[in-house]
Structure formats: structure tokens, C-alpha cells
Design brief:
Elements lengths: L9 H10 L1 E4 L3 E7 L6 E6 L6 H17 L6 E7 L8 H14 L15 H16 L4
Parallel strand pairs: 3-4
Antiparallel strand pairs: 1-2, 2-4
């Protein structure tokens, strides 16, 4: 089902914003969290700071196409937030930025012949714990 690929409700976005971990570069911010299902979903947020309606829609189209063509591990909810610097960038530049974020989050499938490591959810939980301990030293 096509709609399964997308976050569609404000509550879904809010959950990812509140409980997900963040990865950042100069063009895009990615927030992600496990969703416990057999497929990954994503949402795209482009604020008015990025530019006028034509520019914002162009950035959204580019990000949708990049995500459509990029294999992502199943079981994750992600929100991609475009930064103002993304407005003038071409497809290749945005694709490199998005793939770098997905790689940092370990959401890209392993390359052919790669050794099996710990589970992706375990790596994510370690990342969440580290981020929470940085922001809340009492833990």
C-alpha cells in the first residue's frame, strides 16, 4: 500500500519529534525512531524559511525522489526537515546529504558481503541513550 510509506498524521510527526534521535548536516535534519512494523515510513517538513512556495515544493519533490530511490532498512519512522541552505541545491548534493544522514543513523542496508553485526535496533537504542545522557546528566 502506497500510504504506508509516509507519515500522514500530526501525531505521527510529533511522536518522532519527541522520541526520535536526530542527525544533522547543513542541508537536512533527520529524526528517526523504530516503529515496530515491517516497513519504514517517512515525512518531509519544509518551512517557509526555506523559500517561497515554488522553492519549498521543489525541495520536497527532490527529497521524496531521493527517498524513493534509496533502500532503507524496514521498521523506522523518519522525518526529514529541510534547512534554508537546501533551497538552492541540486539533486546530487541533496542525495549525498540524505544518504550521509541515513548512513550515520545506520539505516542503510549493509553492503553485499558485509559481516553481520549487532541489531540495528540495538545500535539505535545505544544512540538514544547516549543522546539522553548528554542532555540529562542525572541519568
Amino acid at each position: 500500500m502506497k500510504a504506508e510509506r509516509f507519515l500522514t498524521r500530526p501525531e505521527q510527526y510529533r511522536l518522532v519529534y519527541d522520541k526520535g534521535a536526530a542527525w544533522v548536516n547543513s542541508l537536512v535534519v533527520m529524526r528517526a525512531m523504530p516503529n515496530g512494523s515491517g516497513f519504514s515510513r517517512y515525512g518531509i517538513s519544509v518551512s517557509r524559511r526555506v523559500g517561497n512556495a515554488v522553492t519549498r515544493n521543489r525541495v520536497k519533490r527532490l527529497l521524496r525522489e531521493i527517498l524513493r530511490l534509496t533502500p532503507i532498512l524496514p521498521g523506522w519512522d523518519m522525518v526529514f526537515i529541510a534547512r534554508p541552505a537546501a533551497a538552492g541545491k541540486d539533486y546530487a548534493t541533496l542525495a549525498r546529504a540524505v544518504k550521509r544522514l541515513l548512513g550515520q543513523a545506520r539505516l542503510l542496508p549493509p553492503a553485499e558481503g558485509a559481516a553481520e553485526g549487532e541489531s540495528e535496533t540495538g545500535k539505535f537504542q545505544d544512540t538514544i541513550t547516549k543522546q539522553q545522557s548528554k542532555t540529562n546528566p542525572s541519568r
